[in-house]
Structures are given as C-alpha cells and as structure tokens.
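Collaborator request, handled under Task 6.
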Amino acid sequence: MTIHKQTSKTFLGKNLETVLGLDLRSLAAFRIGISLIILTDLCTRFGDLTAHYSDLGVLPRSILAEIAKSGYWSLHTISGEPIFQILLFAIAAFFAILMLVGYRTRVATIASWVLLISLHNRNPALIFAADDVLRALMFWAMFLPWGACYSLDSAFNTSHRQLPERVFSGATLALMCQQCFIYIFSAAFKTKSPVWIDGSAVYYALSFDQYVTPFGHFLLNFQPILKVFTQITLVLEWIGPLVIFIPFRNDLLRMCAIITFIGLHAGFALTLNIGIFPFLSIFSWLAFLPSSFWNVLEKRIQNPARQGLTIYFDADCGFCKKVVHILRTLLILPGTPLLMAQEYPDICADMQTHNSWVIEDYQGNRYFKFKGIIYVVSLSPIFRFLVPFLSWKPVMAGGTKFYEAIATNRKFAGNFTKPLKFRPLEVRKSRFLNILAVVLLIYTLIWNFSSYSPDSFKRKIWEQTAFIGRVTRLDQSWSIFAPSPPRDDGWHIIPGRLEDGSEVDIFRNGNPVNWDKPSLGVRSAIYHNMQWRTYFINLNRAIGKKLYPFYGEYLCRHWNTQHTGNQHLKNLDIYFMDERTVPPGEQQTVEKKQTWQQSCS
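Structure tokens returned to the collaborator:
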C-alpha cells in the first residue's frame, strides 16, 4: 500500500513537471527573442527620442500628470532634457545586451523590467498592445531561470552539479497562465461585438488604413475567406492556449499549438503594420517548446566533426580561458572539451611555436590563429553561414593580424574580460518565490476579470489593492482589436502658413498641400512607426483634447528650428479627413474635420 502511494506521488509529480514545467533551452530561446525585441524597440524609439520623451516634444512632463493614471511612475521624468533620455536609453540597451548574452541574467532582467515600465509610463499616448504583452512577459521572466542555458552565466559555471533539463515552479505556471490570459480575455472582449460573431471583424481590421499592409489590402477582395479567418482567429484565441495544459501526449499537442500560433502571428505580420507585436508573440511561444524538440534537434545536428572538436588554450592566460568558454557557449557547441595546452607536450609546443590557441578536429588536424576561429565557427549550428565571409581573403588577413595583436598583448586584453567572473550556477527552488509568483498570478487573474467586467469589482478591498497592479504594471486589459477593430479611419492634413505668406503641408515635409487620400506607401512614410501611429489614433480619442495643444507647439518649434527668416511658421491648422469604415458593399464617405488651430508666434 505504501509503495503504491509512493509510486502514485512520483507519477503525479513527473506528470505535473511534464505539463507545467519548462525546458531550460526553451527559456533560453525565449530570453534571446525577448532581448532582441527590446533592443529593436529601443532603436525604433530612439529615432523619436526628443519628440516623444523630452520636454521639447509632444508630451512635456507638465501635462503627463494630467493623463497618467495614479500609481504610474517613471525614471524618465527626472529630467526633460534629451541628453538625460539618451543616457537612460543607453542604460536600457546595456542591460538588454546583458540579458541577450545571459550575463548576470536575473539582475539584467530586473533592471530591464524597471526601465521598460519607466519608458512606457513616460508617454502613455504611445502605448499599444505589444507594450502590454512585453511588460507582462518581462515581469514573470524575473522569476525564471532563463539565463541557465545558452548564456555567459552557463559558460562561466563552476558548479559540478548538473543542471536539470526542465524546471517546474510557480513562475513556470504563471508564464503559461499569462499566455492564456492574453488570448482568452482578448477573445472574451471580442465576443462583446457582433462583428466577431458575424465574421466581418477581419474585414474591418484590414480596412483600417493606419495598420493594413498592401497584402492585407489585397485580401479585401476575398470576403468569404475573411469570414473564415475571423472565425478561426476567435476559436484559436478561446481554446488554443489551453492545449499546452493537456496532460496526455503533451509534447505533440504543444508543438501543434506552437506551430499554429506562430503561423497566426506570421499572418498578422504579413497583413498588418503593428510593430513588434507579431514577432514578440512568436518569441513568447518559444518558451513552451518541449524537451523532446531540443533532444531530437541536438541528435540531428550532431556529427563526427562536432563530436571530435577539441580546443586547447594557454593555462597561464586568464583572458584565453574566458574567451574559449564564451565561444563554446555562443557558438552552441556544448560538450566541446576545453583543455589546457600545457598538459599535452606536443600541443604546448605547437601553441608556443605559433603563439596561438590550438584547435584539433576529429581527424587530428590542427588549426591556429584566425583559421582556428573559422573552423570552430564552421561547426556552429547557427553561425556557420558566416564562414564564407570570414574566409574572404581581406577578412582573413585582417582577422589574422587582429588575432596576433591580441595574442601578443594578452595581459592588456585581459582587462576587457576582468569583469567576467567564474561562479557557480544552480537552479534552486525557492518556496518564497514560488508562493509569491502564485499569489501575484491570482492577483493578475482577478485584475483580468475586473478589466472585463469592471462593475463586478467596485469593492473597497479591491480598489485598495489596485496600486499593486499600477506600480508593477500588472494592470492588464487584453482588448486587442476588441471589442471590434477601429472604424474611425482617415488621414491627417496639416497646412501651415509661413511668414512670407506661402502655404505648405507640415505633415509632408513642406510639400504643397494635397487633400487627396494618400496611398498606403505614402501613409507608411507619414506614420513611420507604431508609436506615431498609436499617437495619431489617440489624437482622435478623448485624450486628444489634452494632447493637441502640445502637439501644435511641438510642430511650430520643430519647424522653426529647421528654418530661418520668412520661412518661419506663422500658424497651422490640423485637419482629420474622417473616412469611417462602412460594411462591405457600401460607399465610403470622407468628412473634413478641423481638429486644432495653432499660432506659432
């Protein structure tokens, strides 16, 4: 009887770990993807740093308090000077790079999360669904050991204890549930609108010129297919994420769900200009790749050349030791022996003769200097595409000279790797963190219900805890294209009068004013990234009344700093050509609305 109970507990534990656990390699792929997204997002936002995040832009700090919700905080509000914002962007990029390579990963993740919230809170008028998703994923990532694999932390690991293949914790459960919240609550919001029930929602989404791509616009010619896409999207959002919790044949079903949702978001990327959202969503699904996927992949890429690779380094060179550990990890060559050349007389002789590390292949051939780097890269399952470039004579000659310069000045080069320390890396289960993650998960679930049905949660107890959601930015509402896609389509025209009496279109770099509907290509150039698209959409919302005065001042200031004399801007008008989307087959009309007047004197 006792044996039977123990066996049942063991089976239950293994089954829970299989269903609710996540592979360390999957978490590493998730980390790398999210890091790339953050860096890409920072680069995009950096181009509009002054316009969006300084007091010289569209939202000076003086107005931020009027539109920001209670509890929102931002380090970016310490100063309104562009140089201060540049500093914070640089710090955010630094921590994102640390997260990408996986060095001091938890510290880098926490710092990235703090700076991400700070950036988003600095200008709420720019926030789109992708920003909400990114914040939510980054929050749970702080609890996860996503730096335990494919990272510098693992490269410099001195622990002899083998890391587990999978981890099961409150954080893994929270991440899985968070993925479900994003889709299921989005589907719940959508069912409030008849356009998702009657199958016309995708038509309205692709009719919104602010977002649609040329391919998406082309699909408007196939109305029956769009109805099918609407129904498929709604069904997938309702039940698709739950597949990852099915206890039987979990690996197969997970792979089906992952491939399906990657395809769904690839479709979004092809048809809609919605910034980082499709790519972020695709990367988020990498966290749930089953262990069997990685095991099969590792077997397939294994060959005698990779198995027979051996790298010898100078034991007296701390810089050399760190570099070979980094290369082995970043080139995805786990298990490659890293040996001290001094322990092998013939290898040591070659090292001294060539003043180089020694790379030995599975046939006993040896490579030195930059040729050794090329050979090692050729065995990498990811970076071997670089070999033709590295083998190009000018690159090889430059690489060899650079290698020789480093080899001759190893002690000096060691200054650059001094901050990198060897230390033990262990994946430990923390009861406190598990409990905390589960409590915050329940809090997040309640918040999602409250956003869906706010009237049901107007109690003092809940209202008193709302500050937790706002401070941590777990205040979620997944109304993505819900309850229905926007229909207030159109375009902006901003005629400005110069001191010399001439009229120009401020919105189109001073060209003559043209009231005609711009093509999709021209529109993409005008609303050139997701932040500007979101901002101009918000100008048409209730918040626009507070935004327009400062946007008008920004336009005057921006134009006049780039022009002199009688080319200065005297005043301007902002018009919105309202082209409200109508049902299929009906004639669209355009209404000219003057939304703001601004004097630049």
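The cover message to the collaborator said: "The longest helix spans residues 24-46. The CA atoms of residues 527 and 536 lie 8 Å apart. Please let us know whether this matches your experimental observations."
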